[in-house]
Amino acid sequence: MSTWRISVLLLGGLLACSLDVGTPFVPPPPPAPPALQLVVGGLTAPLFLTAPPGDTTRLFIVQQDGRIRVVRNDTLLTTPFLDIRTLVTYGGEQGLLGLAFHPSYKTNGWFYVYYTDLGGNIRIVRFTVSAAYPNVADATTGDTVLAVAHST
Fold first, then answer.
1. Chain-centre distance for alpha carbon 22
2. Fewest C-beta in 10 Å: which of 5, 21, 47, 126?
3. Of 123, 126, 132, whose CA–CA distance to 97 is shortest?
4. Distance between CA atoms of residues 8 and 81, nearest Å
5. Does the structure show a pLDDT above 70 at 25?
6. 10 Å Cβ neighbour count for 63?
């Protein structure tokens, strides 16, 4: 008998031995859910969590009310990274809704926010981090990249 034929016979025999036709298949139970742990409190309508490329010590939390908060080493910083509440319509499906860091954020300091302005229009605005304080953005650097009229 050739080696190939013996291999097929052995494989077929193993498969036949492992199948018990009389017993229905019962899948294993699902794994236990991960344990949840509160890291920080005191946030207003948090929607999104992200970090700049390569930054392993800070998390940025987008709050629908128009603020971006920073968690550094498991501590919520008192001063918001960005506070544009005076520019944002907040409530329902409106507010500060997104944040994206430029791939070269480490060198150019640019980040983009997506929000609903006071007229109900959609805006994407680029801001720059403060040169002196890496945990605070320079709110005066806002440059509109995209504005879309949106009726409410």
1. 48
2. 21
3. 123
4. 65
5. yes
6. 22
Residues of the chain with pLDDT > 70: what percent?
Answer: 84
Nearest-CA neighbor of 129 among 97, 82, 96, 83?
82
C-beta atoms surrounding 151 within 10 Å: 6
pTM: 0.76
Write out the two tokens for 29: 């139970």
The whole-angstrom separation of Cα 128 and Cα 100 is: 12
Q: Tokens for 131, please give them.
A: 């040169």
pLDDT tens digits for 39-77?
A: 788 899 999 999 999 999 999 999 999 999 999 988 999
Q: 138 burial class (0-12, 13-18, 19+ CB within 10 angstroms)?
A: middle
CB 116 within 8 A of CB 97: yes
Cβ atoms 144, 92 nearer than 8 A: no
